[in-house]
Amino acid sequence: MAKCDEEVGTLGTLYVVSTPIGNLADITLRALDVLREVDLIAAEDTRVTHKLLSKYGIETPTTPYHQHSLGQKTRQLVEALASGKDIALVSDAGTPGVSDPGYELITVAIKNGIRVTCIPGPSAIVTALVVSGLPTRRFAFDGFPPRRKGERMKFIASLKNETRTMLFYESPNRLLDTLQDMLAIWGDRQAAVVREATKKFEEVHRGTLSSAIERFTERKPKGEVTLVVAGALECENHHNASNLDDEIQRLLAMGMSERDVARDLVARFQIPKRKVYRRILDIKGDPKDD
After folding, report:
1. Helix (H/G/I), strand (E/B), else coil: 191
2. Are 70 and 33 contained in the same domain?
3. Which of 77, 155, 164, 254 has the most CB within a 10 Å radius?
4. Other beta carbons within 10 Å of 221
């Protein structure tokens, strides 16, 4: 078979192909071309992948590649690549290799001199970040929090001073426990819960950790969940006034009142109320003081 892009000796190519995170229309033309032309598709769940392939009339053979089939299956796929076969690696949703088994195949292929290239596309992380309303200039993805409470509490505590916006994947069944642990350790930070992104019943809850707890206590969450939480303010750790000003401006731009902004920052970061009000009034150019 002709290589999907350019010939690379006698070795095959591993194509890391991004697939839709919910809406099957969210796939690139290049991704469809590659899925049609490769010799084999290694899929996290072949049943999920077959729905996508069926929609676009793609009949390329598939083989399962998931967390329970690593090791020997990885070796088999690398051997196929070494013999000249082209393989597409796909996950159930989004870009393979991020919090899924694809990472092992990618690293082993690289170590064996196999060409690895990515067909970019949907990402649940970036999708959640840009709709969250939280700062996007610097962010960190921390995968799934640990399932056990003790380990989860240690994990959350280790991130207390992280100043970047933080993103997590979480099971809907553990979302409330994680939110409650974050509230207990970090205080009531700004947060967004993005559920079923790009699907018919997409939901984005924007507010604080406590408001998210209230929301999902009233209505049990379902489906895929990405959690976005504001990082610690630099002023919390270093009393950096410019970062306090940035946060005040962001909250005011969201439509929060002066009183709500002050209440939020005082509760989250133990900043004196008078200091917060003074900065709010200075930023708004109001000569009055609290």
Report:
1. strand
2. yes
3. 77
4. 22
Let me know: does 43 contact 49? Beta carbons within 8 Å.
yes
Write the CATH number for 205. 3.30.950.10
| pTM exceeding 0.90 | no
Using the Cα atoms of residue 17, residue 20, residue 26 and residue 32 in order, give the sign of their dihedral.
Answer: positive
Checking if the pLDDT of 287 tops 70, the result is: no
Boundaries of domain holding 201: 125-232
Q: Give the CA radius of gyration of the chain.
A: 23
Angle at which helices 72-82 and 102-111 cross, to 10°: 50
Domain boundary among 189, 216, 232: 232
User: Sign of torsion, CA 182 183 185 186?
Assistant: positive
Q: Which of 53, 109, 47 is nearest to 78 (CA)?
A: 109
